[in-house]
């Protein structure tokens, strides 16, 4: 059995030439349809001349959005690789209204021994099951470029 390769073979050459001729003829038929006057009597069998301009413009606009606009929007909404937002959801870690400035801000929040008020038992109840839960706290993750796989596994799975 022959090995598959992209090298030209007689079979591919014949099909390639046939498709080249086919699409060349179709292009000239399209151009003739777009530029020939309607008075030749073929207008009842062919689409309106409006589509001679509309379809190529529609294809170009769709390709422009698919290749340039949508990826650009996606890239603009993606946080940088060095950003903490690519590792931690800041809305869950920081108190409401606080702005993130550095890793030390997160570490200082955990290291500070702030006096806690005694909340009423009704404040600690879960909205879903109406029981009290103890929140698990973890130490912050080191910066993204210095992450060690063993440290990540130990942090999340132990």
TrEMBL record:
> Does the record bear rRNA-binding in its keywords?
no
Q: InterPro entries attached here? A: GPI_Anchor_Biosynth, PIG-P
Domain PIG-P: where?
A: 11-157
Give one GO molecular function term.
Answer: glycosyltransferase activity
UniProt GO BP: GPI anchor biosynthetic process
GO CC entries: endoplasmic reticulum; membrane
What is the protein name given in its UniProt record? Answer: Phosphatidylinositol N-acetylglucosaminyltransferase subunit P
Q: What is the lineage of its organism?
A: Eukaryota, Metazoa, Ecdysozoa, Arthropoda, Hexapoda
